[in-house]
């Protein structure tokens, strides 16, 4: 089986490649942007599965998925994401995706999902698809502390660190520390990206 993994999170991508190749029957290629994935889809011999990260550079969410399906000449394409909502997963499946894989899945389940889709089946974890949409069960919110959520909310409202510090009655350096942790947990490079990820996940 040939699998193309396109994800800008190096650690997850490398881990997934390692697990898949350890299966023995898997041949994997990995890239970090949608442009690189598109090039592989068009120039390589067909893959059994193309796994695209919903938030990687150039992906543009579901538009990237639809483009990959269109250019793939019948190759199966699936989404992987740490932030996308149930609604995004449903829309992806409706658009013709072979499946939706949350990054929160244990490694073994993730590998099994990839094998399942590569064999032609459609995959989406039942617990994710049937989860109630509120902050308490939001997988992204579960990663963050209450204070981090408060800081993130201020950030999504376009407030400066000074304004967030004033609203929460904490020091500005403390806000900066929370920002650093937030960027790491969200996989964001800057304030704008962090705010987009939070909105996309339906947090605020």
Automatic annotation (TrEMBL):
Keyword DNA-binding: yes
Domain HTH luxR-type, chain residue ranges per copy: 137-202
Any Pfam family matching the protein: Response_reg
Gene Ontology MF: a single term: DNA binding
Biological process annotations from GO: phosphorelay signal transduction system; regulation of DNA-templated transcription
SMART domains cross-referenced by the UniProt entry: HTH_LUXR (SM00421), REC (SM00448)
Residues covered by the Response regulatory domain: 2-118
Protein keywords: DNA-binding, Phosphoprotein
Protein name per the record: Two component transcriptional regulator, LuxR family
Organism phylogeny: Bacteria, Pseudomonadati, Pseudomonadota, Alphaproteobacteria, Rhodobacterales
